Amino acid sequence: MAIARERLRQTFSEGGAQEIYQEVKEGGDFFGFAKKYVFDQDSMVARSALWGLTKASKAELAPLKVMLDELIDLAMHTENSSVRRLSLNIIERLKMDVDDLRTDFLDFCLEHMASLKEFSGIQSVCMKLAFHMCTFYPELMEELIRTLETMEMDYYKPAVRSIRNKILCGKLKRE
């Protein structure tokens, strides 16, 4: 049974997201599902589709790599914080190569990881993404480390502090 757009408008629970994932998995078309619903103009539909996709493994998400630029654009330009967080989580789980590095996206991640106006979930994933992108260029990694060292951690939530500490201690690795 194909997932209907109207159903995605009404998915508001973890269990509902898990059900969406299971149905997409059974259908075996993560790419088709993402193409159809992730970029929907209705942010409730996009959010539910992304939420369901976050339940997928990296291997199941791998076909979405061809949408990387579109997912990045979505994350950078959406006004919906849930869509932003969920799309960033999908991006973080896709394999990024040196050719995928976009300076506008790196700048976005650097800005949002440090922004006190941003939600901690978005700050954390932006920090991870910035780290992964900076691993391609030592000079960028030096800039990231300097930025992390100057962040006043008293103003950040534990999740952000944890990712920062893992990066500074060399415990966060590029996968």
Chain-wise SSE layout:
Elements: H1 5-9, H2 14-27, H3 30-37, H4 43-53, H5 58-61, H6 68-77, H7 81-93, H8 103-114, H9 120-134, H10 138-150, H11 158-168
Helix pairs in contact: 2-4, 3-4, 4-7, 6-7, 7-9, 8-9, 9-10, 9-11
Give a description of the structure.
- With 175 residues, the chain is mainly alpha-helical.
- Helices cover 66% and strands 0% of the residues.
- The chain has helices at 5-9, 14-27, 30-37, 43-53, 58-61, 68-77, 81-93, 103-114, 120-134, 138-150, 158-168.
- The longest helix has 15 residues, at 120-134.
- It is globular.
- The N and C termini lie far apart (35 Å).
- The model has no long low-confidence stretch (mean pLDDT 94).
- Provide mean pLDDT, rounded: 94
Strand content: under 5%
Our Rg estimate from Cα atoms comes to 16 Å
Q: Total number of β-strand segments?
A: 0
What gap, in angstroms, lies between the N and C termini? Answer: 35 Å
Q: Please identify the structural class as seen in this structure.
A: mainly alpha
Give start-end ranges of low-pLDDT stretches. none
Helix content: 55-70%
Order of helices and strands: HHHHHHHHHHH
Number of helices: 11
Shape call = globular
